[in-house]
Amino acid sequence: MTKHDALTDVAGLRVGHARVAGPNALSGTTVVLAPEGGAVAAVDVRGGGPGTRETDALDPRNVVQRIEAVVLTGGSAYGLESAAGVMAWLEERGRGVRVGPDPSHVVPVVPAACVFDLGRGGDFTARPGAATGRAAVEAAAATELHARVETGAVGAGTGAVVGGLKGGVGTASTVLDSGITVGALVVVNAVGSAVDPETGALYGQYFQGRPAYPDPAVHETARRRLAETLATNAPPPLNTTLAVVATDAVLTRAQAQKFAGTAHDGIARAIRPVHLLNDGDTVFALATGERDLPGEAGPLALNDILAAGADTVTRAIVRAVLETAQGVRGPGGHFPSYRELYGPEADAAVDSLSNKGS
Q1: Which of 152, 169, 252, 265 could cysteine-pair with 310, CB 3.0–4.6 Å?
Q2: What is the pLDDT of residues 313-333, one digit of tens each?
Q3: Cross-strand pairs, 106
Q4: What secondary structure letter does DSSP report for 252?
Q5: How does strand 14-19 pair with strand 28-33?
Q6: What are the start-end ranges of the H helices in 240-330?
Q7: Is 27 in contact with 35 (CB distance < 8 Å)?
Q8: What phi, psi does 277 have (nearest 5°)?
């Protein structure tokens, strides 16, 4: 049974958030910290406008075997500087790829990906840097194992927007019959929408067995209000949805790359359209190696993890939208939350969120 329906249900993983300070700042950084010694990692980039760092190092053909942390950040390409703060923190602890005779001679490989949120708070220059990344990794390290993960407008989701609605961070997990845990953490910030324009239900809920259909009159009012706010905002030039999927299973790097790729299906179920030229949709996969794959199924034992990864990403996106309670109105634009538009009916959907991984 999962503990918190969160990425941190995967043994050894910790999550920390940090926000850029300032009255007109609306951005931040999220760090997923692996257990000491690292985790097998991979990445799959599908969006047409990605902003990434150190993703080539994760190619199974290349030399890096394990990584210590993944950075998800706001600030577009500027925000990738936050990974430098994480690198410095790891170097101080001797965590990274050993490159010399002394144990302190390490190079931490810290893959990172960014979302576009520049100017959403009104200040185009308010974006994460090395200090933000350091604050986020310190926050992660300060948590206990299997800690709850803060969701909504936090960390890299601070300035996130999805289809004109306020986006944010969501997480979910599941335990397979084999006892293997699969978890996901998503930063929802997309050109596409998470809401079915015909019904007002969240697309991702169609894959959870019980979509919450708002009253048609409530939906029509919400649709009209959203259209009015979109008309007053500048069109977003770039966006991006980021995800980390993880498992406590033993995976090869090639298997981890397949895990990252199929997890994109979870984004496609919950956001439409996806993988546009405006987006930089990127999924990282981590495997901490606590449990062997069931031997009786042979190589096909990976299938259960692949399917669970996509399902868990979908649930994490639904939670990100529903658990981002407050919208934003400021010099950078007006981005209402789903719950503000749909009122008590959205609150009922939040109440119905259950740990489907238990």
Answers
A1: 265
A2: 999 999 999 998 899 988 888
A3: 98
A4: -
A5: antiparallel
A6: 253-270, 302-323
A7: no
A8: -70, -20
